[in-house]
Every structure is written in structure tokens, then in C-alpha cells.
Write a structure and sequence with these properties.
With 207 residues, this protein is of the alpha/beta class. The protein has helices at residues 22-34, 77-80, 85-92, 121-130, 163-168, 174-195, 199-206; strands at 3-7, 41-43, 48-55, 58-65, 95-105, 109-113, 136-143. Strands 2-3-4-1-5-7-6 form a seven-stranded mixed β-sheet. Strand 3 and strand 4 (58-65) form a beta hairpin.
């Protein structure tokens, strides 16, 4: 049974190192690990780049949606098209969505199954496309912290600009990038466990 590993982000070089793109980056790290990074092809049906591989003897499909973030569901809908409701839920359990998270400290990851979107537009879109929350998520923290470990949320600008948008579309600073590189390896290792049907082990090790 194929696992579908979906990395949320924004297509295009200008978004490459932004916080909102970290899910997509994680899929690149996995592709590199499996030595299939050259295999990505645009799939018109999925509106995504996809590459197939084998990981721990399991077939996997890596998917990088080429839609806007809030339309990410477009790239997973075809996976479950024309399946019965029960079959959709079974299939959703094989879909792993990797994305950024504003409520987690930079460098922390959290694995979830069958949980609300936490306001993430990409996850919302996937939930709508699948008509279920029963898929796996790997959330990657992108929020800086104070020395005591409290989240350090940026202040809204004087004109009340939307700090969230500015922040997630901002690039990681150099020091942050060093942390994120290590985090992406953790994500890779967590997903490796999930692909081996070791979801509980992944929870215990990484949450």
C-alpha cells in the first residue's frame, strides 16, 4: 500500500527559504535521501511535482503541490477520487502532510493523526478535499523562542499589518537555517518510521 508524502509550501525560488515553505523542503530532503530528487515530474492531474520511490520496502510517492497554499487540497483530491467513504478514510491514513507551524518552537516537530487544522490554510484545504481529518501530519515549528523557551511572536506593525503573513513569508535567518537543517533530518527519520507502520514509535520518539 503506497504512502503519499505531501510537502506544503510555495513554488518558486523566491519562496525557497521562507518559513511557509519548510514542508516542501522536507520532501526535498526525503527525495535526496532516497536518491530520487532528479525524478520529480509535473503531474497535471495533481497540479504538483511528484516522484515515486521505495523506502523500507514500501512504495512511496513524494508530492510537492504547485498550487497556492490555500488550494493544496487540489493535489491530494485525485488520490481519493471515486473511492467510497470507507476507502477514502483508509487511504487518508496513508497520506502524510508535512507543514510549518506557528505554535511550535523553531526546530521542534510534532506528529498528529486525525486532528483539527490549527488554522493552517494548506491543511484546511486538504481536509476539505479528503472530507476527513484522518490523515497524518508532521508539523515543523518555525517560531523563535525567548531564552526561557516561550514563543516570541512578532508584534503587529504600527499600521496593524498582518504579522502572520509577513512572518511566514519571511526567510529563515542564518542561525535559524542551521537549526532547521537538523530538524528536517528529524522529519525524515520520523516519516521513515511512519512508512514502516510505526506511527506510535514515531510519536514517542519525536513528540
Amino acid at each position: 500500500e503506497m504512502y503519499y508524502i505531501v510537502g506544503l509550501g510555495n513554488q518558486g525560488l523566491e519562496y525557497e527559504n521562507t518559513r511557509h515553505n519548510v514542508g516542501r523542503k522536507a520532501v526535498d530532503v526525503i527525495a535526496d535521501h532516497l536518491d530520487i530528487e532528479e525524478n520529480f515530474k509535473v503531474d497535471k492531474v495533481l497540479v504538483a511535482e511528484k516522484a515515486k520511490g521505495v523506502w523500507h520496502d514500501e512504495p512511496v510517492m513524494l508530492i510537492k503541490p504547485n498550487t497556492f497554499m490555500n488550494k493544496s487540497g487540489t493535489s491530494v483530491a485525485p488520490i481519493v477520487n471515486s473511492l467510497s467513504k470507507d476507502a477514502v478514510i483508509k487511504k487518508a491514513g496513508k497520506i502524510i502532510v508535512i507543514h510549518d507551524d506557528l505554535d511550535l518552537p523553531l526546530g521542534k516537530i510534532r506528529i498528529l493523526f486525525n486532528r483539527g487544522s490549527g488554522g493552517h490554510k494548506g491543511v484546511e484545504s486538504i481536509k476539505r478535499a479528503l472530507k476527513t481529518e484522518a490523515f497524518i501530519r508532521v508539523k515543523i515549528g518555525v517560531m523563535p523562542t525567548t531564552p526561557t523557551g516561550k514563543l516570541k511572536k512578532p508584534k503587529a506593525g504600527a499600521k496593524g499589518e498582518d504579522w502572520v503573513n509577513n512572518f511566514i513569508l519571511g526567510e529563515f535567518q542564518k542561525a535559524e537555517m542551521t537549526i532547521i537543517k537538523k530538524t528536517l533530518k528529524d522529519v525524515r527519520d520520523a516519516v521513515a518510521l511512519i512508512v514502516q507502520d510505526e506511527l506510535v514509535k514515531a510519536y514517542n520518539q519525536f513528540n
